[in-house]
Amino acid sequence: MQEKKGETASNKNPKKANLLDHHSIKHILDESVTEIVTSKGYPEDVRMSNIRLLIGVIIIVIALFAQFYNKKFPENRNFLIGCIAKYVVFNGVLQLIIYLKEKNAILFTYPPPGSFNATGLVVTSKLPRFSDLYTLIIASADPQSISAKPPVEFTKSVTQWFTKDGVLVEGLFWKDVEGLINEYAKESKKSK
C-alpha cells in the first residue's frame, strides 16, 4: 500500500518550465508527447539514435588516435592528415543524417504490436523563437510505404497548456495529443 502511494506521488510531480525560455517549454512539451505516444502502444525506435552514437564514437576514436599517436609532429604528418580527413568525412555523414533523416523529429516509433500497419510514426514538433505557437506533426515513418497515411498536425498556443507559474497542465495537453493520434489512426480507416 505504501509503495503505491509513493509511486503515484512520484508520477504526480508537476512538469515546470521557465516561461521566458522557449527551449525549456519545447523540451517539456516534447517529453510529454513522447510519453503519450509510447503509452498509446507505439514502441520507440532507437535505431537512428544508435547510429548517431556509433558515428560519434568513431569520430572520438579518430580524434584520440590523432592526439595520442606515438610519433611527434613532423614524423606523423601524413597520419594526422588522414585522421583529419576521416574526422571531417564522419562529421559530414553525421550532419547529413541529422539534416536529411531526423529534421525536427522528436520520436521515431515502430508500429504497435499486433497492428497490420507496416510503418511506425515520426513525431515532429516546432516552436519558433519569439512565438507561442507549438506545431505537432504525426506522419508515417516510411512515406513511400503502401500502408503510409497522410500526416496530421495541429498548431496551438502554448499558453493554454501552462499556468502562470510555468506548470504544464498535463490533462489538457494529453487530450490534444491523444486527439491528434486518434485523428491519425482514423485517417487509415478512411483511406481503406
UniProtKB/TrEMBL annotation:
<protein>
    <recommendedName>
        <fullName>Signal peptidase complex subunit 2</fullName>
    </recommendedName>
</protein>
<keyword id="KW-1133">Transmembrane helix</keyword>
<keyword id="KW-0812">Transmembrane</keyword>
<keyword id="KW-0472">Membrane</keyword>
<dbReference type="InterPro" id="IPR009582">
    <property type="entry name" value="Spc2/SPCS2"/>
</dbReference>
<dbReference type="Pfam" id="PF06703">
    <property type="entry name" value="SPC25"/>
</dbReference>
<feature type="transmembrane region" description="Helical">
    <location>
        <begin position="79"/>
        <end position="100"/>
    </location>
</feature>
<feature type="transmembrane region" description="Helical">
    <location>
        <begin position="50"/>
        <end position="67"/>
    </location>
</feature>
<keyword id="KW-0256">Endoplasmic reticulum</keyword>
<comment type="similarity">
    <text>Belongs to the SPCS2 family.</text>
</comment>
<comment type="function">
    <text>Component of the signal peptidase complex (SPC) which catalyzes the cleavage of N-terminal signal sequences from nascent proteins as they are translocated into the lumen of the endoplasmic reticulum. Enhances the enzymatic activity of SPC and facilitates the interactions between different components of the translocation site.</text>
</comment>
